[in-house]
Each structure stands twice: as C-alpha cells, then as structure tokens.
Hints:
Chain A is α/β, with parallel strands linked by helices. Chain A contains 7 helices and 10 strands. In chain A, the strands form 2 sheets. In chain A, strands 6-7-8-3-9-10 form a 6-stranded mixed sheet, with helices on both faces.
Amino acid sequence: xxxxxxxxxxxxxxxxxxxxxxxxxxxxxxxxxxxxxxxxxxxxxxxxxxxxxxxxxxxxxxxxxxxxxxxxxxxxxxxxxxxxxxxxxxxxxxxxxxxxxxxxxxxxxxxxxxxxxxxxxxxxxxxxxxxxxxxxxxxxxxxxxxxxxxxxxxxxxxxxxxxxxxxxxxxxxxxxxxxxxxxxxxxxxxxxxxxxxxxxxxxxxxxxxxxxxxxxxxxxxxxxxxxxxxxxxxxxxxxxxxxxxxxxxxxxxxxxxx
Amino acid sequence: xxxxxxxxxxxxxxxxxxxxxxxxxxxxxxxxxxxxxxxxxxxxxxxxxxxxxxxxxxxxxxxxxxxxxxxxxxxxxxxxxxxxxxxxxxxxxxxxxxxxxxxxxxxxxxxxxxxxxxxxxxxxxxxxxxxxxxxxxxxxxxxxxxxxxxxxxxxxxxxxxxxxxxxxxxxxxxxxxxxxxxxxxxxxxxxxxxxxxxxxxxxxxxxxxxxxxxxxxxxxxxxxxxxxxxxxxxxxxxxxxxxxxxxxxxxxxxxxxxxxx
Lengths: 258, 261
C-alpha cells in the first residue's frame, strides 16, 4: 500500500469534438506521481497540458482510461485536489482573508479562521488580510490564490501556469517561495508550465509533452540538491537535455565571439 | 472641513456642466428681454419663477408630484420585482431561458404606445392603467440587466466554486448574486428612469385627478406656457436627482469592477 496522495494516470485519452471534427487532444498518457513529489509538465501551447491538468482536477470529463487517486477512480472535483489557475481568480468583492477562506465549509468558526490566517502567513501576505484583490500586485494575488488552494489541506496541488502572468524577477522570487511552501506542507504538486528554467528549478521530474495529439515524450528526472543554482553546470546540462526535446539545442555553442 | 473639501471637489468636477445651464438661461433671458418671441410662446424667466412660487405655495405642485410619485412607487415595485425574478430565473436556468427568452425578446420590441388600446380596455383610464404602463416599462430593463448580469459572472469563478464543492445555494449566494449585483443596480436605475418617463406620459395620455404630467397637459390646454415650463423643469430635476443618486450607488458597487478588469 502506498502512502496517501498517489496519483496514477493510465492510458488516458481525450478527444474534443468541435464543428463536426474529432480532435484527439491527449493520446495514451501514462504517469504515476508519488506522494510529496513535485512534477512539472512542460510543452508548447496547445499540447494538451492544461487539458491534462483539468482532467486530473475533474473540471473536464468524458475521457478514456483511468485517473486514480490512491487507487480510487476520480469523479468530479473535490477538496482533496487544490488548484491554482493562471489568472488568480480571486473574487474581487471579497477581502483576501475571505477569499482564502472560500473553500472552507464554515469559514466563520474559530478553527477555520486560524487556518486562514496561518495560510495567509505561509504565503507571506500577513498584514494584507483586509485588502481587496485589486489592491494587490499580480504576484501577491497569486500568493493569495495559493493560500486559498492550500487552506483545505488537499493531498495534491495542481498549478496551471501559476506564474505565467508575472514579470521575470517576481517569477524567480516566487519559485523560491513555491519551493519553501512545498517543503513546509509536504504536499504533492503538479505544475503545468512552458518555462523550462522554472520546471527544472522546482521539479523532481520534468514531464515533456509533444503536441497534436498530446503525448508524454520523455520524463527527465532532476536529481539536484535544493535550493538549486540556475547557473550551475548540472542545471544547465539538464536544461540542455530538455531543450533538445524541443529542438532548441545548439550542438557546438561558442563560448566567446571574437 | 471635510464637507468644505467635498463641496470644493464637486464644484471643480462639475462647473463645466453649470456653464451650459447658465448659458441657456442667459439666452432665454435675452430672447424674452428683447421680445424675439412673443411672451405667449416663451414667457420670461421672472414670470416662470413667479408661477413656480404660486403653484408651490398653493400646494398644487406638491400634490401633483406626490400623486405621480405614488403611481411610480407602485408600478415600479411591481415591474421591477417581476423583472428581477424572471431575469434571475432565465439567468440561472437554461431551460427557463429557452422557455421565456423568445417571448420576452419579442414583446420587448413593442413600443409602449402599442399597448394603449389593450391596457385601456383591460384596466380602464384610472390609476390602474397608469400603474400597468409603468410596470411594463420597468419590467424589461430589469429582466435584461439581471439576465446579463448573471450570465456575465466569469466562468472562472464558477470553476473555483466547483473545485470547492459548492452546493447550488452557496454558489448563488457567494458568487452569482455578488457578481451580478452591479448589473442588477444598473437595471434598477434604467427601470426607475423608464418609470418616471412613463408616469408623465401615461398621465398625459389618460387624464387623472392630479399628477405632474396632468398638470403639464392642463397648462398646455389653457395656453399657460409659464406653467408648462415649470412642469418641465420639475420633471427634469426629479429625474436628474433619481439618476444621480442611483449612479452614485452604482459606481460605489462597481469600484472593485473597474479596478480589477
């Protein structure tokens, strides 16, 4: 028996019918995610990685194959799986505190309030409890969204390009924060991204997807000690390996141009 | 201090609007002073002011306005609440939309004048028919705005609710209603504007004991253009105040909306 929080995806196929055309979006996707693992799914736009994530969350249905959490077939979304969307999706008419408490059954009782405040502190937004989303920057809003997704203590957190809308520096800072939260919570995280650096910096394994139809081309393990050095040789070697899959690799790079 | 600041801010923001009013007033005074138009067709400002004082102190203006407002209150409440219920049902349920939308969209196109014969046959020419006209006028903007408001709640928020396993009631209370609220308030504003217009119109159309529209039409029939102008100014001023008041509420509610999109 595995530890709780094992996600198993077997022979997953997904089609979309649009305008009488039958489009195969996902073709025989197989993936097992161990509890506490950090997995990144990297691929070009339109490769089906977001569809994959939405299927695992339960927001899409009508698929062939199995998606199992601890051996049980998933049926629609539930509180065991948290999601952070690319757009933070905080409710603009609620304060940060209320937004973070959205997922709790009765957000007014003492226990719930404590949990909300703890999670706000976890993502580094202490002092912003009474602010509204429009008063926060993009990075802060995404932190609040992460707190909201974690407040129910889900077993798995899915992140759909969570930092895609942020500027490069804020993004790098958020990588450190995400790593810290992942370590502290000991939670399984599955992140969809198209930022190769981000994937290597954070993940235990990088899943590379190819497009049309979306399949897993390769899974590259990242056996580097954390926190990782973006400029380290091992890091760059893995980056090269990933980029090779996208045919972006330069065979004989010049170190200096004369 | 705070009040003085507010008044200062208000004047700074709105003085251009006053200039237009002032120019029109000067033009009016000039035309009457040099008698470019006969006093029968355009009475002078001081004559109009005197007439205003007269109808105000005799209580005629107050009584007429009061009657009109009471008709509005009844017609608006009926039309607006029915409109809200129908719009909300259509917004929340696809089958209610399929059932009601074609009918509503067809009937909505009929100008209010088209209803005159039926309404008068059914409701007579007393208060009942006026209230019905107002209710019809208040109903449609409310239906459309409530429906649109509910349907324009971003799909992403509904997905968040699904992920958190919200039930139907919690979804409505926590996401649909607050998300649709600004549009609903716009609907109330349009609906109230239509009510005010229709009370004047229906009082002219089917005469009544008292009412601001009735007062206007009586003045026309006895060729008292000074009284006609008094009525027009009063009608405009009331409509303006209603609109401003609801506009304030609306912009306050949409504060989050403007800054987040």
